[in-house]
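Budget justification aside, the reviewers requested a transparent look at the raw inputs and outputs of the sequence design task funded under Objective 1. We therefore reproduce one unedited record. The lines immediately below are the structure tokens for a 283-residue chain.
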């Protein structure tokens, strides 16, 4: 089988670590397909559309492309092109890819489905005086922790205003969401199969640091102490996974239009109450 692996080769401002992080994932996938005796081609996605000609000759496209030249909004355009051409590819379709990257849309869908979602708003000038603090401030239409650093969580009105102003200079839309303290979990779904619960481990973080998964911690070697760990069949209370916890992730998957693969992030307060989206998943 001829397999094409699509990826974003990066933008002018990407560091060597940024590019290495992408290529490590590409090489890992290529190694797996190669071990199964498939013909593998690593294909970068650029605006010249040469990648599309390579995809048309493939039996399967393994889509690792999360943007073009680092611009996340073009991610769903790539998927839409594959969908329109009838090319077999991995991952979700264009609607789901677009909706999940737009946090206001994703939060609205989850709320309409009856899932608990921490209070949020798209920052347009003044934020309501009663908006709960602490809050996390992040781009409204990015993913992969883009725009998140150690200053993303604010605990007073002055810091909130300053952070929104700083983020607005970098991104077109900024979302502010109530910060939920506690442990953070995510659940992956492949087809109809729910994968084991994964927990973000913040135990090595310094005292006084907000436990969030920043861009540096996620993508840069040595960028932060947060790391992932997997705990099979365990809910936030350390008990055998409860029925509501099992249901919520497939519900989020289905209401988001998920087909193929997805991941739902969820913070959990002490005492077991669950939120609808994680502090990093809110990222």
């Amino acid at each position: 089988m001829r397999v094409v692996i699509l990826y974003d080769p990066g933008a002018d401002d990407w560091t060597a670590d940024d590019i290495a992080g992408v290529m490590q994932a590409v090489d890992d996938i290529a190694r797996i397909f190669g071990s199964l005796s498939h013909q593998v081609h690593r294909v970068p996605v650029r605006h010249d559309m040469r990648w599309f000609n390579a995809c048309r000759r493939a039996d399967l496209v393994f889509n690792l492309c999360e943007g073009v030249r680092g611009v996340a909004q073009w991610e769903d355009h790539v998927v839409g092109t594959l969908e329109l051409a009838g090319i077999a590819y991995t991952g979700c379709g264009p609607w789901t890819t677009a909706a999940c990257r737009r946090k206001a849309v994703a939060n609205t869908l989850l709320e309409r489905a009856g899932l608990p979602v921490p209070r949020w708003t798209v920052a347009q000038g003044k934020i309501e005086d009663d908006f709960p603090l602490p809050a996390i401030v992040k781009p409204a239409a990015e993913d992969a922790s883009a725009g998140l650093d150690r200053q993303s969580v604010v605990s007073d009105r002055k810091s909130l205003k300053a952070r929104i102003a700083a983020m607005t200079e970098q991104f077109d839309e900024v979302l502010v969401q109530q910060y939920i303290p506690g442990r953070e979990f995510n659940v992956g779904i492949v087809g109809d199969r729910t994968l084991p619960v994964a927990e973000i481990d913040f135990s090595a973080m310094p005292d006084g640091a907000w436990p969030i998964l920043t861009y540096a911690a996620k993508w840069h070697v040595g960028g932060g102490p947060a790391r992932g760990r997997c705990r099979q069949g365990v809910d936030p209370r350390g008990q055998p996974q409860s029925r509501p916890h099992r249901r919520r992730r497939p519900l989020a998957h289905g209401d988001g239009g998920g087909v193929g693969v997805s991941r739902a992030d969820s913070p959990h307060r002490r005492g077991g109450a669950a939120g609808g989206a994680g502090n990093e998943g809110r990222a």
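Helices lie at 16-35, 50-56, 75-85, 94-101, 103-112, 157-170, 215-219, 243-255. The mean pLDDT is 82. Computational costs for records of this kind are itemized in the attached budget.
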